[in-house]
Amino acid sequence: MKNALRFTEQIVAAYTYTVAEQSLVDALHNSTLGHDEMWSGSIATIPHKRKDRDTLKTNIKKFLELAQDGYCYYCGFSFVSRNGERGYKGIQRDHIAPKSLYKQFTFQSRNLILACSKCNSSDYKGDTETVEKASAEYDKCDFNIIHPYLDKFSRHLQLQDDGLLKLVRKSRKGKATKKMFGLDETFEVTLRSVCLQFDKYQVNTLEELLLARISKVNISVHK
Ligand SMILES: [Zn+2]
C-alpha cells in the first residue's frame, strides 16, 4: 500500500527536451503569443504546432508523475488521497513562477511540477508571486517558497507525529509555504494526522483503521 502522506524532499531531475521539442519551445517563446496562448492556445493561435505542443505537455506530465511518485509536492498528500478515486484526473501542471508574471519561464522544465487541485487553486497558490528576486537565468532567481527543484524540503519544514509542520530554524520559506498552501489549517493538520495513522496501520479507510486499532488493543489485552 502506498502511504497517504509523504513530503518529497527534492525533485532531482527536470524534464529534458528532445531537439525537436526544444525547437518548438524556442519557436513559441520567440513568437508574439501571450503566455496563455503559448501554453493552452487553440488551433487558431498556433495552427501547425498545437498538436506537438500538446504532446510535449503530455510528455512533461508523464515524466513528473514518475518524478513525484504520485504526491503533491506542496501539501504532501498523495494525489489519490487528496483527489479521491479520480486520483490523477484532479492534478494540474503548475508553473512555480506564474506564467502570467514570467512568460519567459512558461516552458522552463524546473518551473513545472504537478500539484493537487487544492494547492493550485486561486484560493491558494494560483497566480501568486513566488519570486523574491528575479533574474534572467531561472536558477538564479530567489524564490519566496520552498522550491521543488532548488530547495530541500526538510531544511525548511519537518513533519511531526501529530500532523503539525515544524519550522526549521525559523525558515522564512517554510513560513511562506505554510501560508500559501494553507498547511496550518485545522482541516489540513487533522487530515495529516489521520493519514499518518493510515500509514502506521497500513490501511486505506477510517473503518479499516478502527478495526486495526481495535484488534491491536485486543492483542495487547490478551498478552
Ligand atoms: Zn497539494
TrEMBL record:
Does Protein biosynthesis count among this protein's keywords?
no
Q: InterPro entries attached here?
A: HNH (IPR002711), HNH_nuc (IPR003615)
Query: A Gene Ontology MF term for this entry?
Result: endonuclease activity
A Pfam family annotated for this chain is: HNH
Record keywords: Endonuclease, Hydrolase, Nuclease
- Where the record annotates domain HNH, the positions are 72-122
Q: Which domain of life is it from?
A: Bacteria
CDD domains the record matches: HNHc (cd00085)
Annotated protein name in UniProt: HNH endonuclease
User: Organism source for this protein?
Assistant: Janthinobacterium aestuarii
